[in-house]
Amino acid sequence: MTTMRWVIDRKASMLLGLCICLVFALALHFSRAGERLSHKVLDRQFSLLHRYDARPLQHDVAIVGIDAAAFKVLQEPFELWHPHLGKFLQAMANAKPAVLGLDIALPQHSYQFLIPDYDQPLLQGLQAMHAQAPLVLAQMPDDSGAFRPVHQSYLTISGVEALASVVVCPDADGIVRRFDPNLCTVNAQGSTLVEKMAAYLGDKDPGTGLVDFGAGKPLEYTPFLKVLEWQARGDAAQLAHTFGDKPVLLGVVAPFGERIYTPVALAADEPSNRLVPAVLMQAQILRSMLNHGLIQVLSPYTLLCLTLLAALFWFGRIGWLKLVALVAFPFFLLSLSIWLLGRGWYLPVGGILFSALFAFIARLLYEGMLQMRQRNWLRGAFGKYVGHDVLQEIVAGNVQSGVEGTRVRLCILFANIHGFNERSENRPAQEVVALLNDYFSEMTVAIHQHRGVLDQFIGDGVLAFFGAPQALECPEKNALEAAQEMLLRLRQVNVHLREQDIAPIEIGIALHAGEVVIGHIGSAVRCEYTVIGDVVKLTIQLATLSMPLNYPVLCSAAVAKIVESTGGLNDCGEQAVNGNMLHVYGWVPPVLAAK
Fold first, then answer.
1. Which of 16, 97, 376, 527 is deepest in the core (most CB within 10 A)?
2. How many CB atoms lie within 10 A of CB 189?
């Protein structure tokens, strides 16, 4: 593949990868796949705000709780609490609250047929309360989901418009986080209890949104029995101090009453219980409406832009810097979201985080694919030139390939067959090619075994070098050992030739060391990892003296000086090589000499 084509393919791959990341981000946004994570994060943030940074309230809600003690003292069935509820309403009429909401089920029937005038205390209490402050009555759903009726005599006094739903709508995981009556089919008509209470307090259109669980401290309640006690002793001052000009909610807080899962523990007396009495949830919704307002979700367009921006993690090479950025990104996003939450805006982070993580992993896989591709290219580029050990080092990145070109000191080896041109002219072409193939195969193994790099075949000649791309402690020594191995393997080649009645061959090997230029040299269509320089030319010319000097291996003084401890080197004096005088040494490997 040409360089230009590689660049084009890389750009196309980068563009394709970006498109995949953006499509994934779009799918996350429209499928709301990160909603579960967003809710988990939101719950944790609400918990932190509620515990450590609860926002002060200008308008709080007073709660009267019907607790377990009330059910223990007042032993009648709750449906027959007419006298007690009547006394409570008389107490509230004396306290003059801003608005009173009854989050309890009022009787469906009259009980006058059991006890004459039994309904009167409750009717009188409703009438007294209605004369002093707005009153909102709860509509409770039955098991079928329909609203339970309230006895007409109570509605006559309070007014049908006083009825309001107390149904709240949980998210898919069963936790109530938002106020939106449209999510519940039972609330399709009419207003809710807290909406009507907020309207009486001046907020005509509280809208919908997330409940602000960071508003106000944990909720406390005044026991129902305590209110009856204050009323019984005529303590109007205490009643007015506790409930005067405040929104008041009456509801059941006993453990067996209706309870709702919330993101935080709302009850002050149950600091670790997120399953809270329903009246406390109503109170927190009303708190949100009357103070900072319900929390609004950022616009879908803003969320889409942020999710798409997170997909830009596709760009940038994988490294420590990008890894740090990926680790820091959630902290930044969470800090931003909790800051917005404290100012009335909700930023769902799940889809954005998943988009960034997907883009990072996609880029990681892409770069892994590129590395694999590069390794395959290196195997193709060097596999025919170097031995397995050197190739593994190159692929592992421990050896520089020299693609850009560099100057380095190497030991060059060149070997050719004596009289091969004359020999090949008289032999069949098939025989010549087969001989060269067998010969080159053995020579290549010998060179690779001693960590040399096969440069090229030049006719019947073999050019190799030692010391690059993998640096060697003593490339001259490796080259000399390779020369000996080549001569040993030549014996095996000659054995096969004799078996075919073909005359054996002799070779001359030359070694020279010096500085050369090495790198991938050629055109965009074809290039070779090769060496160039005077050292290479001198080595090739030096090999021609092997036959006249009668040595299978010749080396220059530059090589002999390094390997003189090897022994057996014979000084051949100054010789004319390619127009230069070169001090030459002849060598017969001891293994061959012994045989």
1. 97
2. 9
Q: What is the pLDDT of residues 416-473, one digit of tens each?
A: 999 998 888 888 888 889 899 999 999 999 999 999 988 888 889 999 999 988 889 9
CA–CA dist 310, 28 (Å, integer): 12
Q: Is 91 helix (H, G, I), strand (E, B) or coil?
A: helix
Asked whether 208 and 180 are in contact (CB, 8 A), the reply is: yes
Contact 251, 66 (CB under 8 A): yes
pLDDT score, position 388: 53
For the beta carbon of residue 57, count every other beta carbon within 10 angstroms: 15
Pull the structure tokens for residue 308. Answer: 């798409």
Residue 579 φ then ψ, to 5°: 80, 0
Query: Cα separation of 190 and 164, whole Å?
Result: 7
- The 10 Å CB-count burial string (b at 16+, else e) for 284-298 is bbbbbbbbbebbeee
What pLDDT score was predicted for residue 526? 61
**DSSP helix/strand/coil, 341:** helix
Q: Strand ranges (DSSP E) for 153-274?
A: 163-165, 178-179, 209-210, 222-223, 247-252, 259-261
CB 542 within 8 A of CB 510: yes
Residue with tokens 């149950």: 270
Domains of the chain: 3-38+298-372 (no CATH), 56-291 (no CATH), 400-594 (3.30.70.1230)
Using the CB atoms, write b or e for 345-375: b if 16+ within 10 Å: bbbbbbbbbbbbebbbebbeebeeeeeeeee
**Residue in the block written with tokens 């030549």:** 490
Amino acid at 98: A
pLDDT tens digits, one per residue of 84-109: 999 999 999 999 999 999 999 888 87
